[in-house]
TrEMBL record:
It comes from Rhodococcus aetherivorans. Transmembrane segments: none annotated. InterPro entries: ADH-like_C (IPR013149), ADH-like_N (IPR013154), ADH_Zn_CS (IPR002328), ER (IPR020843), GroES-like_sf (IPR011032), MycoS_dep_FDH (IPR017816), NAD(P)-bd_dom_sf (IPR036291). Belongs to the zinc-containing alcohol dehydrogenase family. The lineage of its organism: Bacteria, Bacillati, Actinomycetota, Actinomycetes, Mycobacteriales. This is Formaldehyde dehydrogenase MscR, NAD. Keywords: Metal-binding, Oxidoreductase, Zinc.
Amino acid sequence: MPQQVRGVVARAKGAPVEVVPIVIPDPGPGEVVVAIAACGVCHTDLHYREGGINDEFPFLLGHEAAGVVESVGAGVDSVAVGDFVVLNWRAVCGQCRACKRGRPQYCFDTHNATQKMTLEDGTELTPALGIGAFADKTLVHAGQCTKVDPSADPAVVGLLGCGVMAGLGAAVNTGGVTRGDSVAVIGCGGVGDAAIMGARLAGANKIIAVDRDPRKLEWATDLGATHTINGAEVDAVEAIQELTGGFGADVVIDAVGRPETWKQAFYARDLAGTVVLVGVPTPEMTLEMPLIDFFSRGGSLKSSWYGDCLPERDFPMLVDLYQQGRLPLEKFVTERIALDQVEKAFETMHRGEVLRSVVVL
Ligand SMILES: NC(=O)c1ccc[n+]([C@@H]2O[C@H](COP(=O)([O-])OP(=O)(O)OC[C@H]3O[C@@H](n4cnc5c(N)ncnc54)[C@H](O)[C@@H]3O)[C@@H](O)[C@H]2O)c1
Ligand SMILES: [Zn+2]
Ligand SMILES: [Zn+2]
C-alpha cells in the first residue's frame, strides 16, 4: 500500500519550501523505502529551490541522509529491513563505458528509483539528486543505500552522503594528497573544511585555509588547517606562495567554484602541482587566461564530482574512522533542526553561520 508521509517540497522557483503530505509507493524491483533519521541541509538544495539545477519542479529536497531500511522490493539482496544506511547519489551501473573501463567513480548512468513519489493529487515529485530525504521516508534504488555501523549518530554520518564526502574526496581521491604535501583550500564552508580534514587524514604537513570570513577560518583551524589566510584582506596567491617557500602548494582545492577563486588556485600551486575544482560554477561563468601559462606550469587540473567517491568503499571506512575518534565528523553538525525549519536553515546558511544544519526526524 502506498503510504502518506511529510516531505519538504519546493513548488516553484524562489518560493519558500513547504512541508506537505507526499505519497511513497511500495518499493518495486530493485527499490527500497528508507525511514529517514537525519538529513543535512546542503547548498545544492538551495540551488534546486532557486531553479539553478533544472526546471523540474516540484522538487522533494534533501540528499545528505541516514536512516533505516523499512521495506525492500523484489530482487534486493544488498540491504535488508532494519539495516542502518547512509544514502548516496552514486549507485554505479557496472555497465556504462566508465564502469567497464574500471572507473566506476565516473559512472555515467547511476541508478535511482524507477517509480515516482508524488504529491497527494498525484503530481510527480523530482527528488533532489535522486534522493529526496527531507521527509519521514523516501524511495531510492537499493544501490543508493550503504550499510554502516548502526551505533553511529545518523545526524553526523548522514553528512557523508554529500558535502563532507565531496570535500574529503576532493583532497584524498581527486587531489591524491599524501603525507608531506602542502595543500591550500580556498573556501572553507562544509565542503572546504572536509577537504582540510581529508588533507590532514592523508598526512599533508602544511594545510592552508583561505576564506573571507574570520569565523570560517577559526572552524578551518579546528578541523586541521595549519595556516589561515583572509582573502578579503590580503592577496591569497601571494600569501600561499609566502607560506610555501615562494613556490606555491602541491595541491590547491577550489571549494568556492568561481572564476576568480579558480584562478587563485591555478596560480597558487607549485610547478607541476594539482588544482582540484570541487565548488560548482554556474553556467554563465567563463575564464580567459594565457594558454602558455597552462603549458609552462605543467601539472594537472581536475574537477571532482562527489569527491570521486565509491560509497561502498568509502562510507563504512570513514564511519569507522569517526567511531575511532580519528575523523571529527561531528564538528560539521552546527545545529539540529526540525523538518519545518529547512527554509530558516537556508537563511542561516546564506549568512554563513553554519557548516551544516541537520534535520533530525
Ligand atoms: N563537486 C561536488 O560533488 C559537490 C558536492 C557538494 C557541494 N559542492 C559545491 O561546493 C561548494 C561549497 O559548498 P559548501 O556547502 O561548502 O558552501 P558554503 O556556502 O558553506 O561555503 C562556501 C565558503 O566559501 C567562502 N567564499 C566565498 N567566496 C569566496 C572567495 N572569493 N574567496 C574565499 N572564500 C570565499 C564563503 O565564505 C564560505 O565559507 C558549492 O559550490 C557546492 O555546490 C560540490
Ligand atoms: Zn556506470
Ligand atoms: Zn549536497
